[in-house]
Amino acid sequence: MSASARHNAVCTTTPTPVSAPSRRRWLRAGAVALAAAGMFVSVAGYAADTIKIGLVTALSGQSARAGEALTRGMTIAIDEINASGGVLGGRKLELVRRDDEGNPAKGVLAARELIYKDKVAVLFGGLDTPVSMAIVPIANQEKVPFMGPWAAGTAITHNGANPNYVFRVSAVDEIVDGAMVNYAQQSFGAKKLGLILVNNPWGESNEKGIVAALAAKGMKPAAVEKFEANDVDVTPQLGRLKAAGADTLLMVGNVGPSAQVVKSLDRMGWKVPIVSHWGPAGGRFTELAGPNAKTVHFVQTYSFFGATSPVSTRVVAALKAKYPDIKGPDDITPAVGVANAYDAMRLTALAIERAGSTHGDAIRNGFYKIDRYEGLIKTYVKPFSEQQHDALSAQDYVWAQFIDNRIVPVAQAAAKVAAK
């Protein structure tokens, strides 16, 4: 047969009949394939529309309670934002968390994963100043806005970068330090202040701030002592502070080491007022420190006790509805973690809206475009500018102590003790 004949034979061959059942199977297979393709497009489309917000914090260890508080504050804010239509015309926010275990190296790894793998638009964290300080250069280098809802080290936001991608809704060491000195003088008549500080960048930040605050009053510390984060006995340091004539202690340290200060004072039998940064509020302080945990007065940026606002009423109701362990304000602890994270997340959503984009530099400029926001901690009016990346000031601080394992404002704590 010639090539032409073979071609004509092929072209004119009658197709083999296909049975009805076979046709139905093919149709069903095609339908499944199309449905799967449609589902893939739908999921991919949803993923593309979702804006991821990263959180690097301690989710395990002694400060896990504070990490959970940050999670809850951000989650309530995200739930509200998503329920009201999301941002940028309907895009939902999604929280992605990583545990840094309070370790700077692990915090850096977590931040890199969230930035490079998860493609977060904004990064939140960290609980500890050393962790935050390790993440700051990455955020600035990669142009990813970094929002701090807890760590108070002054250099976190005052980091010298231009442009600076780091913002904060939290306390600031140099402001807290002045507040600690004033509170010690006003509440305890302090004349010779002894400093007991954790030996890390956070302790260094506060030593600098406290010494400056005292110098502004023509004073010097009675003595300065340091302790390591894993010390279980600080009686030698406290003995030197006592010998130097300290009549009040200014303390800076997280949960574990701060608890050891209290227990060491108990062993010495030295009853001296303690004015602390907010480290003790971050976890199991009363359990670790014992009954004299209540003698420590520490700074906070918010309390759910006292006068309520429409925002606080709404947030408390949402917390009670979402988390069964929360029955009322007593159970929202540490309150600063919830409050700082809630306001920081709402302000971040506003920055994304003002930016009209999820591009890092646009969001950074979006923070500067926030005019007014009625938040949980306060009503924010132009909270950020090129020169100011901290939204809270000394006027936003309150003083608290532990009573029956609850963080209570000092005045109310005194009333509770008197009633017993």
From TrEMBL:
Coiled-coil annotated spans: none
Keywords of the record: Amino-acid transport, Membrane, Signal, Transmembrane, Transmembrane helix, Transport
Keyword Disulfide bond: no
Residue ranges crossing the lipid bilayer per the database entry: 26-48
Segments forming domain Leucine-binding protein: 50-379
Any GO BP annotation: amino acid transport
Protein family membership: Belongs to the leucine-binding protein family.
The protein's name in its UniProt record: Leu/Ile/Val-binding protein
Native source organism of the sequence: Pandoraea anhela
